[in-house]
Design brief:
With 162 residues, the protein is of the alpha/beta class. It has six helices and five strands. The protein is 41% helix and 19% strand. It binds adenosine-5'-diphosphate (ADP). Adenosine-5'-diphosphate (ADP) binds next to helix 1 and strand 4.
Length: 162
């Protein structure tokens, strides 16, 4: 079975992430969404349980996608779930150098693990979890960028008026 891991912070999951996950699930037999739990290094808005629950709710209609939290090296997580492929999403300008760096390091750590990058769709090129948080905080509308339950959670947490 071809198992692929799509790992990230997903703080919170956006329509851009969902688009990549769906496209990966159309190609690979199983896609495991790995939600990175790194409490000390990153200031997450949502706990790993909240991020997992939001991702599960957003992707529950796709039977070959599962969601779980992990900590430690992503390459180790891939081994644990039996994945030989890692999926990432690339936005036009923001992601390439960073993704390239991680890919080179992951290849060094685990040469058998292959990386598959999906180009972000045009409508999500400028969508990031951090911009979403800022817009929510300032009361802007985020309804077309995240599922309704994620928009609700963001507004509750950040107190936006949109
Ligand atoms: P990380 O903490 O690893 O950067 P993110 O949750 O920000 O985690 O992103 C996870 C993956 O999804 C990364 O490969 C990132 O480039 C990709 N991604 C983020 N936003 C989008 C988007 N709007 N469209 C497509 N891919 C995206």
């Amino acid at each position: 079975m071809t198992v692929a891991v799509y790992a990230g912070s997903f703080d919170p999951i956006t329509n851009g992430h969902i688009d990549i996950a769906k496209r990966a699930a159309a190609i690979f037999e199983k896609v495991v969404i790995g939600i990175y739990d790194r409490p000390s290094a990153k200031n997450f808005l949502f706990s790993s349980k909240e991020r997992v629950d939001m991702a599960k709710k957003s992707l529950s209609h796709i039977p070959n996608i599962t969601v779980q939290a992990y900590s430690g090296l992503t390459v180790e997580f891939c081994k644990t779930v039996g994945a030989r492929l890692m999926v990432r999403g690339l936005r036009a300008s923001a992601d390439f150098e960073y993704e390239f760096e991680i890919a080179m390091m992951n290849h060094k750590l685990s040469p058998d693990l292959e990386l598959v990058c999906f180009m972000a769709n045009l409508q999500y090129q400028f969508l990031s979890s951090s911009i979403l948080k800022e817009v929510t905080q300032l009361g802007g509308s985020i309804d077309s960028l995240v599922p309704a339950h994620v928009a609700k959670a963001l507004k509750e947490r950040l107190g936006g008026q949109a």
